[in-house]
Amino acid sequence: MAKIGINISTGSLQKEEMIVGIDLGTTNSLVAIIHPETGKPIALKEHNTSSLVPSIVHFGQNNVTVGEQAKQFLITEPQHTIFSVKRLMGKSYNDIKYNASFFTYKVIDDDTERLVKIQVGDKFYSPIELSSFILKELKERAEHILKTSIKKAVITVPAYFNDSQRQATRDAGKLAGIDVLRIINEPTAASLAYGLGIQKNEEKIIAVYDLGGGTFDVSILRIVNGIFEVLSTNGDTYLGGDDFDQAIVGFWLQQHKIVQEEYIQNKELVQRFRLTAETAKKHLSAHEKFSTDLDGKNITISKSEFEQLIQPFVIRSIECCKTALKDAALDKTDINEIIMVGGSTRVPLIKDSVSDFFGKRVHIELDPDEVVALGAAVQADILAGNNKDFLLLDVTPLSLGIETMGGLMDVLIPRNSKIPTKIARQYTTQKDGQASIRISVYQGERDLVKDNRKLGEFNFSGIPGMPAGLPKVEVSFFINADGILIIKTKELRSGIEQSIEVKPQYGLTDEEVEKMLLDSITHAENDIKVRAVTEAKTEARQIIDTTENFVQKNREYMKEEEINSVGIAIDELKEVMFTDDKDTIQKKIGILNDISRPFAERVMDAAVSFAMKGKKV
Ligand code: AMP
Predict the structure, then answer these.
(1) Residue 343 sits in which domain range?
(2) What are the beta bridge partners of residue 179?
(3) Of 230, 274, 305, 461, which residue is least crowded by CB atoms under 10 Å?
(4) Domain assignment of residue 4, yes or no
(5) CB–CB of 452/532 below 8 Å?
(6) What is the pLDDT of residue 513?
(7) Ligand 1 pocket residues where CB is under 6 Å
(8) Would you state the pLDDT for residue 567?
(9) How many domains are there within the chain?
(10) Domain check: are 307 and 452 in the same one?
(11) Is residue 517 part of a domain?
């Protein structure tokens, strides 16, 4: 292992660049690294403080603060204190409008389809910018603790995050001055932290039960040979420890016959009750009873009273586990390991209920608040090349495909596919007796190959003479674990084959990849139109060729007026073929098809009956 020369306790300087693992959470965020001496993942923290940084940003008069400091303003300055920004990543106002009241700050709702913005005073911020404030704070803390500059990181996201949410997370990293080497799924990170799935030839099914402050996720993963596949995810985006706190507050209000409406008016009292409830909850994870003095009242709660209060939430989470299993088409007995993630899994009733449900012991040996970041650090270490025994998993940053008729991109491996990966597709010839096919390989997201990046080109030759459409040319793309693309071409009837190797990522910087992705979004609408026109033209060309061929070969079976009307329909189609009017082209194709169908069928019938007599047409 290429060790980094730093002693964390003394802070002596390191020599090599460090890649950190970051858990950018809804409630809390943190950074982890692989300890240079022990080789084990550890969460970074200042002396005598928590490793957790509340994911909260406060905008003061002249400064922006993040973390514990910002948290203090949650009640007093709700409009300037942004929490739970992760819930807004990659979302439009339409996506969140039913939960808009959850956010005590101003979420702009004037452009409902576009990505949301948050208004603070007279400034507007995107969730990406807000997340970048948190990441910047994490980066600075890590730099302070490690006494070195941090430029590269692995960041975790929920397994259900879509492409735009993942991209938003990447962009937030970039804005914070961090090169995000990899975005990995939180349940995958949790598994890595426990060392599950990183050995070759290992096959396991894992359930990750993640109950945080405000959200609950359960994911079912299958790990085969170091490849993590998310089989299903389920959860509740508004279920977590905060609900437990609320339930305790409700219990106390009843205990002391405090009227809800009056209590709610007193913001400061609400805050004190809530914080005391959280203290009580944490206390009850290790004790049987909690009591304290609050506002001159003696308030108490026992562990069994608390467990009764949260029973409905526990049941809800177990229902989600059942659905996740059903979606993965698995039985709970198929699960090999269960990992607990999130601070709320410290509650004994939660641990016991999950363990009872799956009929197995659950993993809770690692700190459930840190486990995701620890796993991100493990992944970072693998990326740094320090862990050569483990498989390096990757995804393709851009789609890979070949050029088909009309210059269209036919995608074989979509972007973000896990590697190694393999796919095969069949193609055929366009002309009778065609002996070779040109295979041009492209990388990119646009519909026309001319807008994508050409990786290579080769001629697949030696196809035995056959009528057009008869050869079966199978093109298979295989990306191995080193990211090398191997293309094999085989004519299935004759068995002739050929193969070449291409390095798909070679020569592309992150910026170029990003630009290509952005271009694909900007031009999406136009691309779809161009693709439709090109496809219509290709279809037109093919039907003209086939029909002309057909008429030439089968004149003797056709009437004079049939030959004439086909000729007219072909001419009309040829006329519109060079316009960009897809609908007219399609209409003329339809007319030609309708005219030629009756005699084509007749000729077919004749051919069949000739064949039956042992003669050849
Ligand atoms: P997370 O979002 O994963 O950081 O989880 C934070 C949630 O875990 C909050 O609701 C905390 O109150 C809760 N939590 C933290 N420690 C404990 C504990 N010892 N017992 C019960 N809940 C806890």
Answers:
(1) 200-365
(2) 152
(3) 461
(4) no
(5) no
(6) 66
(7) 25, 27-28, 212-213, 240-242, 278, 281-282, 285, 342-344, 346-347, 369
(8) 92
(9) 4
(10) no
(11) no
